[in-house]
Amino acid sequence: MAARAAGGRGDDAPLLDDLMPWSVRPLRTGRRWVTAPDAASLRTRWERLVRAPDEERERLFRPTRSRDPSTPVAALPGQATGTGRFDREGGPCPEPVRIAHGPFDVCWLLPDHRLIDAARPELWRVADERQLFAVEHGYVPRDAGPALSVTALLPDGHSPAGRPGRIRPLYRRPGGLEPNLAPGLLALLRHHHGDGVTARSVLAWILAAARHSPAGCVVPLPADTARWSAGVELGLDMLRVQLRGARGGERPRLPGGRRPYVRAAVPPVPTGMAYDPVDEALVLGTGRISPVPAGAWEFRVGGVRMLELWFARRTVAGGDDADGLEAVRPRAWPQEWTSELLELITVLALLAELRPRQRALADGPPLTPTALRAAGVLPVPAAARRPASVLDHREEGPDGQFALL
Question: Which is nearest to 117 in space by CA: 42, 188, 32, 200?
């Protein structure tokens, strides 16, 4: 795909789609009850489903054109779940797994392929202790929020507003092998900025410099090494915050005196979330957390305030599914949610403090798509947009059959 002009500034910024050419669409569960903010609810939902009479099981399952209780489906890569027809399932609940649910949230998922309309097995095949995922946020006009985020967890790619973006693994193969970068891009960047350029430093630059445009997510590439180094340093700072201690890093913390604390316990059923700007306090019913920087409260993606969205996912009933399995949820606010909220406040506050450094990267001579074409980086070959073959990986197919992929 030829790079397109971005934001009316001319041929100055290539598309992320050309720099990280292999991408996967967001997961499509088909039924909301297979995810939850807590693992215990998923185990209870499973038990209720497999013990229900046939007609009740069909209703609770919520069939779609892609999945019903009799659909034959292969196992998800890396997951030891059943592959027999689900209408014959009576075994224990598979262990829920943590996934990244949209930007800056984490939820639990039942990793059973029979329950998920489009689980994107190609992502599961490369999700390991070395992998990182760049997740585009949906484009919304006049959105000043970040264009993408990075996670070590397998992401579902959910977008809080706008059309969902794509999920882009950093590596095409397990074990941190074969960077998902346009062929020749690393060599070109090393020619300009030195042999220290790695796939991780390219991801760091992308995280710091990516921006929205109507044509898609664009990433200006600098010709100036000082600007490149500053952007990579910023991107690594952002990466450490967003990974939340994964991949050998430290969990994000605000300096002493600025760390948020629970001043009044969150009640069992908080009635709402509000912000007190005078006291820098987050108010959840009678509960109170402070100090909460204004930057954390105002942090938005696609125009949606992240703290409010996080709270709504844990307190708002599930719409047309509220009388089914999604209605199985904690009756009282779990203590672990308060811990998760404190961490989220910290993450958003630290990222908000880094935003001025991101805006400072806007100026400088670029490596334009024209230069990338002259270097042979563009156009990207079609093979780079397809997943790599995993020839030594056995996966269980429907009804226990095995396939060599």
Answer: 32
